[in-house]
Design brief:
Helices cover 35% and strands 22% of the residues. It is built from 14 helices and 17 strands. The strands form 5 sheets. An 8-stranded mixed β-sheet has the order 10-9-6-11-14-15-16-17, sandwiched between helices. Strand 7 and strand 8 form a beta hairpin. Helix 1 crosses helix 9 and helix 5 crosses helix 8. The two termini are 43 Å apart. The mean pLDDT is 95. The chain binds cytidine-5'-triphosphate. The site of cytidine-5'-triphosphate has 14 residues, from helix 12 and strand 14. The site of cytidine-5'-triphosphate (CTP) has 14 residues, from helix 12 and strand 14.
Length: 390
């Protein structure tokens, strides 16, 4: 956990956060304050008697301007101490002295699996939650002690994400969002197939941004090797027909459908059940294609036929005349919002620029990371939804 804390510190600084590191004496046994100072670019505090503070009140001075306090790792002992409001070192003092209304406290537990499962730890965490702390989850797997189980501290990336999610405005609270993402794979025979260059990154970023915004998110993913965003329910599919079935089954429960997947327009008619062999002198196999169902158009039409309560968003990747194609596609698919990829070479990249096309016109979201664009898109979307009926 201590090296994850060092990595987290670095990641947060890289993302533009100001990180003030405070360590317990115990933490300083594992990683030196010098390491954390170098990573955070700030002096590190360990003692409540630190003479660098002119008024000698580090516990007050360090807690008045923070947007959040994160204890990572939070040991079983430290949580037991917090529970009782004890304050015998700088970190516990700060947890107690922080203004609770403006400085939320997040805890990232890390301990052996038996310590984690112990009723005392579970009881303490329940009480800490009641006292207003946000207790993050733990990971599962190999532990430093050699045992295997629950209690590992979350990875640095997961912690950074938890912090970002914690700060994200909950503009989709209570909404159910369905996203499809990635390419589809259309088999020719058991070992060959046709697919496309979609990486799934944009759709996954949208699923994550929607979950961070408070939505319950289901992600129907084509064959991609991306990690599932935290808190998102994922359904893996291969072909357009699989994706069609999975999306239709989920659409009935959704408030929003974002069709970010690059669905193959055609599939191979009569895919061979055995590998097609290359015979000397024989002509190459002739492939015939059948049209795949248009998932977006079908979901949008079904939604209109029912109550119209499902808000559908389409995507378009064009190699020319984006605006004209996007407007035509929006009308053809009969959806209220169509998102165009401004750069057709965006496949697999981490950034992009988008064009939002609706019945009134269009708006550009300038080049930014896909994570950033996804957040902007989710905000835009939230303003378009009819108010939630209680
Ligand atoms: N889409 C879909 N099902 C398909 C094809 C496309 O749901 N069988 C959705 C995509 O997820 C995307 C939108 O429709 O949201 C636009 O996809 P695109 O392939 O660009 O549109 P097409 O209608 O296939 O037009 P074209 O390929 O001619 O550009």
């Amino acid at each position: 956990a201590c090296y994850k804390a060092a990595e987290l510190c670095r990641a947060l600084v890289k993302e533009g956060a100001t990180v003030q590191v405070v360590m317990t004496e115990a933490a300083a046994q594992f990683v030196t304050p010098v390491t954390m100072q170098a990573l955070s670019n700030q002096p590190v505090y360990v003692s409540q008697w630190d003479p660098r503070e002119p008024n000698n009140m580090a516990h007050i001075n360090l807690t008045r301007h923070a947007h959040a306090m994160l204890v990572a790792p939070a040991s079983a002992d430290f949580m037991a101490k917090l529970l009782h409001g004890r304050a015998d070192d700088l970190l516990s003092l700060m947890c107690l002295a922080r203004p609770v209304d403006t400085v939320p406290l997040l805890l990232a537990p890390a301990m052996n699996k038996e310590m984690w499962a112990h009723p005392a730890t579970q009881r303490n965490m329940a009480q800490l939650r009641q006292d207003g702390a946000k207790v993050l989850g733990v990971g599962q797997g190999d532990q430093a002690c050699g045992e295997v189980g629950d209690g590992r501290m979350l990875e640095a990336d997961e912690l950074r994400h938890s912090l970002e999610a914690f700060f994200a405005p909950k503009v989709l609270q209570g909404r159910r969002v369905l996203v499809n993402a990635g390419p589809t794979y259309e088999a020719i025979d058991p070992v060959r197939g046709i697919t496309n260059r979609s990486s799934g990154k944009m759709g996954f970023a949208i699923a994550r941004a929607a979950a961070d915004a408070g939505a319950m998110v289901t992600l129907v993913a084509g064959p991609v090797a991306l990690p599932t965003p935290h808190g998102v329910q994922r359904i893996d599919v291969i072909s357009a027909q699989h994706m069609h079935a999975a999306v239709l089954a989920q659409a009935a429960h959704a408030d929003v459908f974002v069709a970010a997947a690059a669905v193959a327009d055609w599939r191979v008619d009569l895919a061979a059940s055995q590998k097609i062999k290359k015979e000397a002198g024989a002509a190459p196999p002739a492939l015939r294609f059948l049209e795949n169902p248009d998932i977006l158009a079908e979901v949008a039409a079904t939604a209109r036929a029912l109550s119209g309560a499902l808000f559908c968003v389409g995507f378009a990747a064009e190699s020319e005349n984006l605006l004209a194609h996007a407007q035509a596609k929006r009308a053809r698919k009969n959806v209220p919002l169509l998102v165009g990829n401004i750069d057709p070479d965006t496949f697999g990249q981490d950034d992009n620029a988008l064009l939002l096309v609706d019945e009134h016109g269009y708006r550009e979201l300038p080049r930014a990371s896909k994570a950033d664009l996804a957040r902007q898109l989710i905000h835009d979307l939230a303003t378009r939804l009819a108010p939630k009926t209680p």
